[in-house]
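Risk mitigation, structural track. In case the binding assays with iron/sulfur cluster fail to produce interpretable data, a predicted complex structure has been prepared as a fallback.
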Amino acid sequence: MICGIDVGSTTCKYVLASSEGEIIDQAYERHNTKQVEKVLEFLTRLEQQHGLTPERDRVFFTGSGSGLIAKLVGGKVVQEVVAVAAAVEKLHPDVQFVSEIGGEDMKTIFFTGSNGTKNKQVLMQSACSGGTGTFIEKTARKLQIPPEQLSQMTYEGRTLHKISSKCGIFAEADANTLLKAGVSIEEIIASLFEAVVYQNLATLTKGNTPLPEVLLLGGPNLFFRGLQEAWRHHLSKLWQERKVALPAGKDPAELIQVPTNALYYAALGCIEAGRGEPERVGRYAGTERLKWWIEEGQHEEKQKEGKRGLWREPEELHAFKAIYGRPNGRTHSEPAVNVELTQVVVGCDFGSTTAKAVCLSPQKELVFSCYALSKGNPIEDARALFRQIRQALGSSGQILSLGITGYGKDLLKGIVGADCAVVETVAHATAGLHFFPDADCICDVGGVDVKIMILNNGTVADFRLNSQCSSGNGAFLQGVAERFNIELGEIADRAFAAQAIPQLSMGCGVFLQSDIVNQQRKGWQAEEILAGLCAILPLNVWIYAGGLNNLSQIGKKFILQGGSHKNLAVVKAQVDFIKSKIPDAEVVVHPYSGEAGAIGAALVALDWWQRGGQTGFRGFQVIEELSYETTTSLDTVCKWCPVSCQRTFIDVRLPGGKGRPWSKVPLAEGWERVIVNNSCPKGLVEDANEMRVIKAEMEKTKHAFPNIADMVRAQAFHRFAG
Ligand code: SF4
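Fallback model:
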């Protein structure tokens, strides 16, 4: 028998065939980063069920994890593209272009020439997740779309939105922004499919035209109906534009095939390649050495390469936990429970992963806090928060003022009647300084942003903000944990369990991602990689994202806040890093590290109320009953500049809403419109019609309030007669 095993970045597949090439069995399974263990399971199964026999049968491996495993079981490695091409040439002699999309890589193969003398041109990408299956799945998970639903989601006829196709991490952020703007998940997923096809065509064809027939391979191409539709749409269009002659009477869509066994082509190709090799090549040596590697070998190798874990001695970890791990040890604090919630000031922080709200008493005590996992729609998030606040306040409670911050603030200010929309850095600095007025630096590591605020006598003297790169943020750590099926709350304990950690490189999250895959191949386990990520986080935060090489210039008292600092392993790495630079530094974690933004917004709103402000909060019932509609169409495209942003109009039914009868997307009285997805403030003005309305309003105001300065200037040296 001859066996082909494809050890991919997310799954392993095998095909077992007779020596004549007749298929006996095939299977694919996710390996959850345990590639070696999964292959051992496969081989044991094949020995037991099909009599795969050492020294008689042959095994050929391909895929990113094949090198190490093949050596251990006596198999031979077949280069991935060679394997796929071998299967395609055998099964589809007419195919001229192949796209294979894997979990973390993608490749295209152009076949030119006639049968006997076919040439192959291969283009691959594996350094970035853009355009691969992982970023579709990752985003779908974020949008809480179950895999069965994702596989059936369509592309044809959907309105498409701009999603970064170059970087998987940015694509996820784009998808998140669209969701927050009220774009439907169907449109977001269709836009992701568009981005995948665009990325494949833009980076992997290098100007060559993929000619029919086309074969789509790999899990994403097989499983996602919408992705197949996107390919058919783009290739048909391309053929039309480039006047490609198609076989008479054929619908272009028919010339793009997705075989039902599209997952197995690399494994099938291994068998084809293996059959062409001499009998002695690829002789299966059994699983003994594989077992040895799992039990001993990998640990020996790791010890040579790795460095110590997040702690040296158990006493050191105990001492750290004694300071930072206690409920009052600055990692978590409960709001006061014995204070009657009568009059409160509310602060809300609409973050990328969670929305948080706090209630402060007029004496600035935190009396209530709550959160909701972000559904990506700020109106829904606000509803979830205000429901909890309403319940906590009861019928006698009163909101004195409302401050909001975070991504949703501009959208929500008018809708919920917030009194202050507070810029994130201001909210976080206010919250930090409230508890630690003598702080020299506040470091806020949230889901997406890293903010470093350098303080001087209680005011922000300098700040560093990083929201364009995922390196060092909490979402990246969380994303990796999710891939390992580790809950957010478990990350710290798992990371502390690591005795040694791999050396990961500081910098771009995309490269860090491939670094992780490399470390996994060497046998590093989930907890060790998570510990490694926690250890690298301070470098990414302070040096890579913050550009602060000399921490000692900042001062001595550092406040850590933001949701990522709820993770004790991250705090340990941060404390060790800061103290390695400034041995006598004082590092404290904000008592409400996750709620700091909401607290800051509430403090600003409290100040506003104390200066005589009268709240415009619309009330719980209005928020509960908010109904809204979203429109993204040709009529919502911004025409103020050639960028032509595809904006979304979110129309909310609100008592007293003025409507927009003059709009191209008319809005009746009793509704208000919020415009999102504009790249600059100009895009907040709908179109020339609205500009006329605004100008008319400005003229009216000018008449009602003449500019005194202009009048004085005009009259100052005027000589009056007499
Ligand atoms: S929102 Fe700004 S950048 Fe976008 S099209 Fe309008 S004017 Fe141009």
